[in-house]
Amino acid sequence: MITGSIVALVTPMQADGSIDNPGLQQLVEWHIAEGTDGIVAVGTTGESATLDYEEHIDVVRRVVEYAAGRVPVIAGTGANSTSEAIELTRAAQGVGVQAALLVTPYYNKPPQEGLYRHYCAVAEAVDLPLVLYNVPGRTGCDMLPATVKRLSEVPNIVGLKEAKGELTRVRELLALGLPPEFALYSGDDATARESILLGFHGDISVTANVAPGLMQQMCGAALAGDSVLAAELDSRLEGLHRDLFCDPNPIPVKWALREMGRIPEGIRLPLVPLDERHRTAVRHSLEYAGVI
């Protein structure tokens, strides 16, 4: 089981939208040096929606190559087409990832039985650990705890990233009596500390893109049950948890990384650079966290 701070890595791009592979390698090296516990390549934060199939798998392959076994790599391979999700997951398995993260099908709003069959179909098609991903605010589809319970019984479905952002949902999941080896990850930085203290195993994080060391320390303290230290560390991150979502993700976090000199300015349409009215707040939160 992967535990701790797992970064939902951005995909660095040049101003023309082309992928910055040297920049990607530098980000991976930085995260390893800062103690990040795992990397998600080409999840939502990695602009999976606008990378084509070849780019998607190439970025995943490169992250695996750059990490060189030093940290586990999870590939984002979700889609709202079951056949596409299977194709992406098979390809990710072929380039050597440790697991795949599959968002609930978006826009078509499948019922709970549809979600169950979708994930079962992917699980049957690959021999790879799969992590479910629930983010109803973006997909328009909420995977309910009862469905998570059913899916936890599928042998290679090993975890869940829960990004509803409600501690009520966290408690509901913890009360299900899930298998002890089934990993529960927060997908909401603002409630990650409380979620881990309650019993979650880590955080798949946007904030970790800009404050990897501090996020790793905070998650580690929470996993150790040190609520005082975790709260102290998290207090430095609260502004980032808030302001990195002042515009749709990954607009603010890519602007923040550019401000830090970590990546170029590129982002793909229909996303655009951060609106000027938000920049002062994001910059102040970066300063408060001590990362610039």
Automatic annotation (TrEMBL):
Alphabetical list of CDD domains matching this protein: DHDPS
Reaction(s) catalysed by this chain's protein: L-aspartate 4-semialdehyde + pyruvate = (2S,4S)-4-hydroxy-2,3,4,5-tetrahydrodipicolinate + H2O + H(+)
EC number of the protein: 4.3.3.7
Main location: cytoplasm
MF-aspect GO terms: 4-hydroxy-tetrahydrodipicolinate synthase activity
InterPro entries the record matches: Aldolase_TIM, DapA, DapA-like, Schiff_base-form_aldolases_AS, Schiff_base-form_aldolases_CS
Active site annotation, chain numbering: Y133 (proton donor/acceptor), K161 (schiff-base intermediate with substrate)
Xref: PROSITE patterns: DHDPS_1, DHDPS_2
Known role: Catalyzes the condensation of (S)-aspartate-beta-semialdehyde [(S)-ASA] and pyruvate to 4-hydroxy-tetrahydrodipicolinate (HTPA).
Quaternary structure and partners: Homotetramer; dimer of dimers.
Protein name: 4-hydroxy-tetrahydrodipicolinate synthase
Organism: Banduia mediterranea
